[in-house]
Design goal:
The complex is a heterodimer of chains A (about 110) and B (about 110).
Chain A: E1 5-7, E2 10-13, E3 19-24, E4 31-37, E5 43-50, E6 53-56, E7 65-68, E8 75-79, E9 88-95, E10 104-105, E11 109-113
Parallel strand pairs in A: 2-11
Antiparallel strand pairs in A: 1-3, 3-8, 4-5, 4-9, 5-6, 7-8, 9-10, 9-11
Chain B: E1 4-5, E2 11-14, E3 19-25, E4 32-38, E5 45-50, E6 54-58, E7 61-66, E8 71-76, E9 85-92, E10 101-102, E11 106-111
Parallel strand pairs in B: 2-11
Antiparallel strand pairs in B: 1-3, 3-8, 4-5, 4-9, 6-7, 7-8, 9-10, 9-11
Classes of the chains: A mainly beta (about 110), B mainly beta (about 110).
Chain lengths: ~110, ~110
């Protein structure tokens, strides 16, 4: 039973470029959460999605960031016109239900903006 | 706003000792509490969750919750060098508040 998959694992972008991060939840999970972890800081919630719906995006920056979870395919976190402050580890987690106690994390994507 | 406070450490203990990791929180409405382990450069891994006052044991790990005092702790018995990692405390609020809030984590070093 494959776990949560994320790709790419490492991504380098120049300032102003776009970054696309992908997340495939565990089999049977339809709830996806994106988190960002800056160096020396805790995990910060960004957005919660179910298939084709954004449930909670209260942690998303208002500009440049967007997320989707289409009916088919992985969830995608998109960062437009990246800046150096976007350099961080981005983790995706999935759960079986919104009230499930357990969220399973993917290996993360390390984004470096040069 | 739910605040979760952890001592960043590092907490250094000798192999075989008991490691005690603590976490305090500000929101009395918090319902469920989680401990994650995160190795350097890796993703968080859920170790335990607890939602009732008292102790919950799983192998070498014991989670302790005291809602009146608003703290939750994690005890690791017979600590091993492989336990060296950062331990993240997280909590969730009342029903409907499904997004966990994480502390910054405590770095644990178990030395041989």
């Amino acid at each position: 039973n494959a776990g949560v998959m994320q790709n790419p694992r490492h991504l380098v972008r120049r300032r102003g470029q776009e970054a696309r991060l992908r997340c495939s939840p565990m089999k049977g999970h339809s709830h996806v959460y994106w988190y960002r972890q800056l160096p020396e800081e805790g995990l910060k919630f960004m957005v919660y999605l179910q298939k084709e719906n954004i449930i909670d995006e209260s942690g998303m920056p208002k500009e440049r960031f967007s997320a989707e979870f289409p009916k088919e395919g992985p969830s995608i976190l998109r960062i437009q016109q990246v800046v150096r402050g976007d350099s961080a580890a981005y983790f995706c987690a999935s759960s079986e239900g919104s009230f499930s106690y357990e969220q399973y994390f993917g290996p993360g994507t390390r984004l470096t903006v040069t | 706003q739910k605040e979760v406070e952890q001592n960043s450490g590092p907490l250094s203990v000798p192999e075989g000792a008991i490691a005690s990791l603590n976490c305090t929180y500000s929101d009395r409405g918090s319902q469920s509490f989680f401990w994650y382990r995160q190795y350097s450069g890796k993703s968080p891994e859920l170790i335990m969750f607890i939602y009732s006052n008292g102790d919950k044991e799983d192998g070498r790990f014991t989670a302790q919750l005291n809602k009146a005092s608003q703290y939750v702790s994690l005890l690791i018995r017979d600590s091993q060098p492989s336990d060296s990692a950062t331990y993240l405390c997280a909590l969730r609020g009342r029903g409907g508040s499904y997004i966990p809030t994480f502390g910054r984590g405590t770095s644990l070093i178990v030395h041989p």
